[in-house]
Known about the structure:
Oligomer: single chain
Order of helices and strands: HHHHHEHEEHHEHEEH
Distance between the termini: 27 Å
Shape: elongated
Strand order of the largest sheet: 1-2-3
Amino acid sequence: MNDIVEQFEVTFNQIHQHLKELNGFPKNDNFVELLQRSKRKHSVIRVHFDQLKQYAKLRNAIVHERISGDYFIATPHEDVVKALKRIKRTLDQPPEALEFATRPVLFFKDDTELSHIIEAFQQHRVSQFPIYTNDRTFAGLLTNDGVVRWLSENHQNGTITLDKALASDVLSSERERSVEFLKASAPVFELEEQFEISLVQNRKLKAVILTDTGNPDDLPAGIVTTWDLIKVDQREREDEEDE
């Protein structure tokens, strides 16, 4: 077989295998179908979707429209094989989730005064803080939405007293579990999967907290919001331009 064709086919098949793994080895393992599914969940596929779809057409022409022996109706250009191999390398060794996280993570104890946390919201321009008990057990994610909700529920005659209000008081106003946990060294695909699952479940995921072991009661190594996911797409596009 022509060497350039063989390299293309081997690399294409390896990417196909990755797509099967990313989609849990479904019965319908058609390359383009898997590509379409993966596009919604994973940045590397989203960025290279059109490119991979064209490569699938080329692969079909090579495999199904071979004229005779080593004579093919189409032969991939060397640059196509290089690009395909680069995509395959990214799938082989995806970046870690921690690379796209906000670090360091500012967190508070559950007995922290609410007034102090409100000041921190203003100072650091963030929308949520992890809250822990004194024995470092994760108590919940305190969000600016939760604070506003608590304030609206606890005013009297238009007046709100914060003197004795603590972080633990506000956590009761957080309506739903809005955080998941993941090992800091997990591949970025697992991070994207967390947000995709929440979308399918119609559940608003505020953040994914990364810890060394993925245990909720470990101190946070990084925190990822939907805004941080933009960094994943951006990096993939920059890598493509540098190729």
